[in-house]
Design goal:
The complex is a heterodimer of chains A (about 100) and B (about 280).
Chain A (H helix, E strand, L loop, with lengths): L3 H25 L6 H18 L1 H4 L4 H16 L2 H19 L1
Helix pairs in contact in A: 4-5
Chain B lengths: L1 H6 L2 H5 L4 H8 L9 H6 L2 H32 L4 H11 L2 H10 L6 H11 L2 H9 L8 H9 L3 H13 L11 H25 L6 H4 L4 H13 L7 H16 L4 H16 L7
């Protein structure tokens, strides 16, 4: 099934992503980027990623907060799959026992 | 690790995204140890194979990401065709995770497209570093090559081209080798996300099972891969604080754009010392 707005959004994503891939090649190779612009470009992905998961941090439910803390801890020292396993299971268990 | 990183250009070093590529760059592929003569005698097909073999160990780490992404997309109501289309046409994992996390029915087109651009803005630097190594390619071939420039493919392609650097000649990108890299990653990404989308909707109530924590976990792991020291992380902290405040105070998805702009403003106004 394909809905119109879904399709438009997907095509829009594909378009801007391709734009970022070719623009650096065609445009930036002739001009060098300033230090500040480089720093902003480097910070951008992290800023977006952390904002997208901000609602998870905006909770006062204790079980969610503890699960989040455990997940952050896991992410700093474990690969992706164990981190997800710890995040998901701790959230499920804490919610089940402590509401 | 140290050696390899010291030799990289600042711009090249800057854009490492995700931890696979960082780990993978340090490990020596089995093909590397072969004598030089074997390499020069080999045709394009064996170059393709060499690229595919180089990226193969990485694919084991990529497939679970694809499964998680596809499953979540399926739970958000995207059809299998839509998931395959997104991953096949966009082919940039980080931005797809962002899009699915923000996905509503109907989706907020401008928010998702805008965030996609920001997450993928690092491609600008990556494309620029490849330019001197793609001088011999026609415009059409270059455009097609760049479509597949995902982080891992870029890193391995550049590494291989650099290994052929001579005193007065910049090593050029080996297209068949690059095609081997791209085929492996593209195929794995498309298949794993599609399989995830097929399985996702069959899973029970995500809240009860704690599955809503899967995405934040993935995001945190990606962030760790982007980590470049405490100072470079200050914009992230500002972004998070502003986004949380906005999320609590106004409804809608403004917290994403607001938090991002706040973090980027801090990065622009206070460009700290780089620590890597």
């Amino acid at each position: 099934m394909l809905r119109r707005w879904d399709l438009l959004t997907i095509l829009g994503m594909a378009f801007v992503t391709y734009l970022t891939r070719v623009m650096g090649f065609w445009v930036l190779r002739r001009h060098t980027l300033g230090e500040k612009a480089t720093i902003v470009l480097e910070a951008a992905p992290g800023c977006v990623l952390i904002c997208v998961i901000a609602p998870v941090f905006a909770t006062s439910r204790p079980s969610n907060l503890v699960a989040l803390g455990l997940t952050v801890l896991a992410a700093t020292r474990l690969p992706m799959l164990p981190t997800v396993a710890i995040g998901v299971s701790s959230a499920a268990l804490l919610r089940h026992f402590f509401g | 690790m140290r050696n390899l990183r010291d030799k990289t250009e600042p711009a090249e070093r800057a854009v490492n995204f995700g931890q696979f590529e960082m780990n993978a760059l340090t490990s020596e592929g089995p093909e590397r140890s072969k004598p030089r003569i074997a390499k020069s005698l080999s045709g394009p097909l064996s170059e393709v194979r060499r690229g595919a073999l180089r990226i193969a160990p990485l694919l084991i780490g990529v497939a679970p990401f694809g499964l998680v992404l596809g499953a979540q997309a399926g739970q958000k109501g995207l059809s299998v065709v839509e998931v395959a289309l997104m991953c096949g046409l966009n082919f940039a994992g980080g931005s797809e995770f962002v899009a699915i996390e923000l996905w509503r029915n109907p989706p907020l087109l401008f928010l998702i497209v805008g965030m996609t651009f920001l997450v993928n803005s690092r491609h600008l630097l990556m494309g620029a570093t490849l330019a001197p190594r793609m001088r011999t390619l026609s415009a059409r071939r270059a455009s097609l090559t760049l479509f597949f420039m995902a982080d891992e493919i870029w890193a391995f392609g550049l590494e291989e081209a650099r290994s052929r650097d001579q005193e007065y000649a910049t090593g050029q990108l080996s297209l068949p080798y690059y095609a081997g890299l791209a085929a492996g990653l593209y195929g794995t990404w498309l298949i794993s996300t599609t399989v995830g989308a097929l399985v996702g909707p069959r899973v029970g109530n995500p809240q009860v099972l704690g599955l809503d924590m899967a995405f934040p976990a993935v995001f945190l792991v990606i962030l760790k891969g982007l980590w470049k020291g405490h100072k470079a992380a200050i914009p992230w902290v500002v972004s998070l604080a502003v986004a949380v405040a906005l999320h609590l105070s106004i409804s809608g998805s403004w917290y994403v754009a607001g938090g991002t702009v706040a973090g980027l403003t801090v990065a622009y106004l206070f460009p700290g010392q780089k620590e890597c």
